Each structure stands twice: as C-alpha cells, then as structure tokens.
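Why do we bother with holo predictions? Because pocket geometry can differ from the apo form. Keep that in mind while you read this record for D-malate.
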Amino acid sequence: MARPRVLVSDKLSETAVQIFRDRGVDVDYLPDLGKDKEKLARIIGDYDGLAIRSATKVTEKLLAGADRLKVVARAGIGVDNVDIPAASKKGVIVMNTPFGNSVTTAEHAIALMFALARQIPEANGSTHAGKWEKNRFMGVELFNKTLGVIGAGNIGGIVCDRAVGLHMKVIAYDPFLSEERAKTLGVTKVELDELLARADFITLHVPLTDKTRNILSRENLAKTKKGVRIINCARGGLLDEAALKDALDAGHVAGAALDVFEVEPAVDNVLFNHPNVVVTPHLGASTTEAQENVALQVAEQMSDYLLTGA
Ligand code: MLT
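The structure, written out:
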C-alpha cells in the first residue's frame, strides 16, 4: 500500500510531524497555507489527509478539488471552519480532538474573569505609563459571586470546578447536563432566563450552532443583572457585539472579556478600545501543554484512520 500523504496547513506542534513520520505517513508541514486559499486549492488534490487549526477554511469549493482526501482533522474542538455536509457528501471524515485543550481554555476563561474583576489589563497599561492610578482601579471579589456558565460540557465543566474552588456560587444552563452531573460538579442547573437574571459573571462554553448563535442577543442581554460581567472564550457569534457595546455604554454591563470574535482575525471590532473590555486574540487553546496534546491526538487519530481505516 502506498504511504498516505498528509498536509498540515496551520501552525501545529512539530510533535505531530514526527508522529506522522514515525507511523509511516508522509507529511508536508506548511503552517501558513491556511491563509493562502488559492495555493491550498492548487495542492489539496495531492493529499489523503488535512490537519488544521482555525485559519484553514475547509469549504465546499476547496473540497471540490480534494479528490484523494479521506480525512480532515481539527487540532482543537470547534469544527465550525469545516463545511461538514460538503465533506460528508464527498465521503471525507471530519475529526477533532475534544479533550486536549479543555483545561487550557477553561483556565483562560478564569484568567479573563480575574482580569475583569480587578481591571488588570487597564491597570497594567496605566502603571507602565507611570500614572500610579491607585484610586482609579477599584475591583470586585469573585468570592460569593454568582457565576452563570452557559454550556457545562468539557470546558464549561472544568470552569465550574475551578469556580467552585474559588467559592463562587455556580449556576449552569445546559440542556444536556444531568442533575447527577450538576451535583457532582457542585453547581445548580437552571434555565437560561434564570441564569441571565441571577449571574454576576456569565461565561460561554457552547459550540456555535444554529441554536446557540446569538445566545446573548440584544433581548437576552437586556435580561441580565445590572453590573454583570461577560466572558467569551468559546466562539464569536454567540453574542451580539453591537448590542454588547450598547449595554456597556449604558453601564448595564460592567465589563466584558473576549477571546473570540464574530470576524477573525479581528483587526477591527466595535468593542475594541472600550475601557471596560478586555480582549485577547483567540488564545484560549494557546499553551504549550494543550498544543502538544492536540498535535499528538491529531497525528495518532489520522494515522490510525489512514493506515488501518480505524
Ligand atoms: C478550539 O476549538 O479548540 C479552539 O478554538 C482551538 C484553537 O484556537 O486552535
């Protein structure tokens, strides 16, 4: 049997490349190709597998020229950059690595919650600028505050666990969360409207689907408690960015910390430069540990599939 060929078109730990080679899979590592649609379309026909992160968009158009392709694997969780119906129509399997970066992403959400509560990024900028504005930065404690977790799956579940450790009261909205699991996590399962009305902090941990798009819509933002702080390390598109800006300007929402945006890369956004908004460039999964985990998982899963069909 001819050796399968895999293309890695986004930045992935070199561990993946080594595993492919060790397993007998030929691999081309072109980490900037995801940004070059034309070149990717020109060469995709030469490969049996495509390993990606978020930059590569696997569209119907790209798949049309991918005649050898058997598998697309996302080193990460969200597969919203892959046209799954188009892939299925072509018989191309789509894989992800649902566990490798969960702890890392949950930790980023907790870090953003602290950053918001104590205005750390603003205070950092001001202190570096020699201003010593000790009276400007009055924070709030997390202790005893209510955290509303929307989506208590892999990542949301870890956020619940860490927040319980911080002695927050944790309430979760997740139609798939069993009462038993909620009890194990130490959280109270609630409906969305109750979460919106009660939470001092809201953090999002759901995939972007037709059901979850705009879950924090203008209407739902209006149902939140005055002074709420919102964290999104999941996906852009889960909240209405213009409505969030209006709610921040009106002083209804006290702060927001966003790692993900409706349009990425986000080089311009309605929420940029707002004094009560903390932003990071989709860093949720960016730790050495998580990137090693997902690279290893992607390479093993793809090699298994390409070499044995399993
Ligand atoms: C994910 O879906 O796992 C993350 O968005 C991963 C990433 O940033 O690559």
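The chain is about 35% helix and 15% strand.
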